């Protein structure tokens, strides 16, 4: 089993990179764990308090549950990943079953800020995209998917996203094995990563055969 971490700033294009990697690997060989699913459940907070939630701080994540689920997957056990809504700021009653696969991808802006998670990653990728481009994507996403208006989106970016990116996320580039500039638009870098993953998987098969 190969565990791959994909980090990067909000709006950097991580989701596109994940999608392209999954599409390039054998069908049904990848399980995806999304950091966003492990935000603490704040569904009971009043609307005013929900607007103050700092989704870009490491303390917003239930790391103990995330690491527990990764360990279970590594030991061949399925897990029930939470389903989180940015609109309600809470977890749904339902969960998503994630089964162990040859490749586990862990994706999220903060995953490389946590030492325990970092230790579990065989390959660490950081998606790096220009800050102006990320800002445009974030505003568009916040309005279309997260129920914010234009002013709320700008305020949220200035108050939380930008300072947290500089303090916590950007420094995790130092932990990355590969930095992918321009996210999903960098097909050359994605092809190189996919080739490396396939090589690792082939080596695992060869070792297993020799044993």
Describe this structure in words.
Helices cover 43% and strands 20% of the residues. The chain has 211 residues and is of the alpha/beta class. α1 (14-24) packs across α7 (187-210) and α5 crosses α6 (150-169). It has helices at 14-24, 47-50, 63-74, 115-119, 131-145, 150-169, 187-210, and strands spanning 2-8, 30-34, 79-85, 90-98, 103-107, 123-128, 178-181. The chain is built from seven helices and seven strands, in the order βαβααβββαβααβα. The strands form two sheets. A five-stranded parallel sheet has the order 2-5-1-6-7, covered by helices on one side. A two-stranded antiparallel ribbon has the order 3-4. The chain has a single domain (2-210), classed as Rossmann fold, CATH 3.40.50. A hairpin with a 4-residue loop joins β3 and β4.
State the main characteristics.
single chain, 211 residues, alpha/beta, Rossmann fold, 5-stranded parallel β-sheet, two-stranded antiparallel sheet, 7 helices, 7 strands, 43% helix, globular
The portion of residues assigned to helices is 40-55%
Rg for CA atoms: 17 Å
The unreliable regions are none
- The N- to C-terminal Cα distance equals 16 Å
Q: What's the CATH topology label?
A: Rossmann fold
Number of helices: 7
CATH-wise, what's the superfamily?
P-loop containing nucleotide triphosphate hydrolases
CATH class type: Alpha Beta
Strand content: 15-25%
Structural class, by secondary structure, is: alpha/beta
Mean pLDDT: 90
The gross shape turns out to be: globular
Question: Topology of this structure?
Answer:
Layout: E1 2-8, H1 14-24, E2 30-34, H2 47-50, H3 63-74, E3 79-85, E4 90-98, E5 103-107, H4 115-119, E6 123-128, H5 131-145, H6 150-169, E7 178-181, H7 187-210
Parallel strand pairs: 1-5, 1-6, 2-5, 6-7
Antiparallel strand pairs: 3-4
Helix pairs in contact: 1-7, 5-6
């Amino acid at each position: 089993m190969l565990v791959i971490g994909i980090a990067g700033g909000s709006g950097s294009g991580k989701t596109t990179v994940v999608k392209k990697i999954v599409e390039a690997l054998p069908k049904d060989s990848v399980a995806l764990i999304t950091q966003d699913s492990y935000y603490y459940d704040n569904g009971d907070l009043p609307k005013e308090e929900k607007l103050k939630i700092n989704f870009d701080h490491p303390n917003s994540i239930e790391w103990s549950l995330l690491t527990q689920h990764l360990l279970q997957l590594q030991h061949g056990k399925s897990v029930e990943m939470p389903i989180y809504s940015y609109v309600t700021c809470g977890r749904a009653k339902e969960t998503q079953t994630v089964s162990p696969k040859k490749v586990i991808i862990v994706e999220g802006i903060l995953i490389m800020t946590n030492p325990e998670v970092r230790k579990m990653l065989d390959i660490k990728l950081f998606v790096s995209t220009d800050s102006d481009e990320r800002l445009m994507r974030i505003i568009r996403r916040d309005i279309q998917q997260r129920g914010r208006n234009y002013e709320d989106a700008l305020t949220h970016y200035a108050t939380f996203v930008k300072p947290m990116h500089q303090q916590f996320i950007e420094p995790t580039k130092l932990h990355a094995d590969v930095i992918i500039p321009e996210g999903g638009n960098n097909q050359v870098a994605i092809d190189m990563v996919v080739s490396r993953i396939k090589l690792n998987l082939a080596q695992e098969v060869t070792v297993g055969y020799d044993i």
